[in-house]
Structures are given as structure tokens and as C-alpha cells.
Amino acid sequence: MTAWTGRALLDDDDDEFDFKKLFLHHLAPGLGCIIAFLMFVSPLKTVLQIRANKHLGDLNPLPLVAIIANCAAWLIYGCINADPYVIAANEPGLLLGIFMTVSCYGFADPKARDVMLKALMFFSVLLSSVGIAIALFIEDDEWASKTAGYTAVFILLCYYGAPLSSMAEVLRTRSSASLFWPTSLMNTINGLLWVAYGTAVNDPFIAIPNAIGAAFGVIQIGLINIYPAKKVAAAETAPERERLVADGEAEA
């Protein structure tokens, strides 16, 4: 494994400062780290409100589980390739994802809890199996990187596609209450920045899935604008809220 030593800021054939290389190799992933943090933290206000109200509301908790898996997979890839930008972009997301998932689990209905638990167990088995395979059976560094890369790409697509069920619900109900527009916006911007970085360093594992993710984000923003969120009447949600709180207290 070769340690990351930074990208050249100067052309091989020119001693003048190259701003394009600076932007693509350093500023783009640096901004990507910031945008990634904002993307991962964007549901936090809603999660804190859920903790205060003891009611999950319209938030789809499945993307929170996907945040954990996505960040863990990219941390493995970043560590194998010694890429500080990939590592810095995903470490905060892993911690935030764990906090938000655990917070929402207690106030979700039994069906949502079951889905969250199954998703978490699936990703845990997948990541631990990949880690064991790389550590014990794959000696070639290139193949170790590819194995981690394919795994990270698969989970990243799951993460970007996690709101697909919500998108179908939006089309069915003509309400975007189940979509969170700050997350969709951050997905789009974040994806474009990492496409620029992945293309610059010739890393398809970074460029291609982030291009798909940016496209998902654009579609979600379009749905949010076409179908504004419809608020449910308080009289209709009060009994359900009481039941959810009781369930949460029973399992606490």
C-alpha cells in the first residue's frame, strides 16, 4: 500500500501555478468534505425535534441507516487507499448516522423498526465480511482497493436510492412530506464535487456513483417543488402519537 502524499499542484511541463489542478485535486474534495458534513447533519434538527416530541412524524428513517453503512464503507476504502479527503468526509457522517438512527428507532412504529433493524444487520454482515476477506484472503493491494471500492459503490447507491420508496410515496400521495429538501440539495452538490475530484484523480469508484447520486438529488428536488408537503391535521395524528410514545416507553 502506498501512502497518500498529495496531488501535484504544478504541471509536469510547466513551473507555473496550476489553479485547475488545485481546484480539482484539493479544493473540490475539501469543499466536498464540508458539504458532506452539512448533508449528514441536515436531518439533525428534525431528529432532535423527534427526540423532544417523542414522535417520528413523516421522517423516513431508512436513509439514516444508509448513512451509517455508506460512511463505514467509504472509511474502509479511504483507509486502504490512504486518501485523507475520503476519510475526512465520512468519519463525521458515521458518528452522526449512529446518533440519529438510534434516536429515531425508539419512536418509530414496529414496522419501521423492523425495516431499520434488517437494514442495519444486512449492512453490518456485508461490511464485516468484506473486511475479513480483505484482511485474510486478499494480498494484492490493487484487488483490496477494488473490493472495498465495489462494496462502497454498492452501498453508496443504496444510500442515494434509500429515498426511492419515499419518492414513490410522493407520486402516490402527491405530497413531498416524506422527502427532506436540504438532504436532497446537499446530495446534489456533494455528488457534483466528488464527480469533479474522482474524474481528476481518475478514480471511477468515486466519480461514477456520485454522478448517479447527483441525478437522484435533482429528481428529488423536482418532486419537492412539484408536490409541496401536505401537513396532517393535529386531530388525526394525536392518537397515533400517543400510541407511538407508549410503544417507545415500553421498549425503552
From TrEMBL:
Membrane topology type: Multi-pass membrane protein
Predominant cellular place of this UniProt entry's protein: membrane
GO cellular component, one term: Golgi membrane
Taxonomy, superkingdom: Eukaryota
UniProt-annotated location(s): Cell membrane; Golgi apparatus membrane
GO MF annotation terms: sugar transmembrane transporter activity
The keyword Transmembrane belongs to this UniProt entry's keyword annotation: yes
Keywords of this entry: Cell membrane, Golgi apparatus, Membrane, Repeat, Sugar transport, Transmembrane, Transmembrane helix, Transport
Membrane-spanning parts: 22-41, 62-80, 92-108, 120-138, 150-167, 179-200, 206-227
Function: Mediates both low-affinity uptake and efflux of sugar across the membrane.
Family, similarity comment: Belongs to the SWEET sugar transporter family.
Protein's UniProt name: Bidirectional sugar transporter SWEET
Species of origin: Chlamydomonas incerta
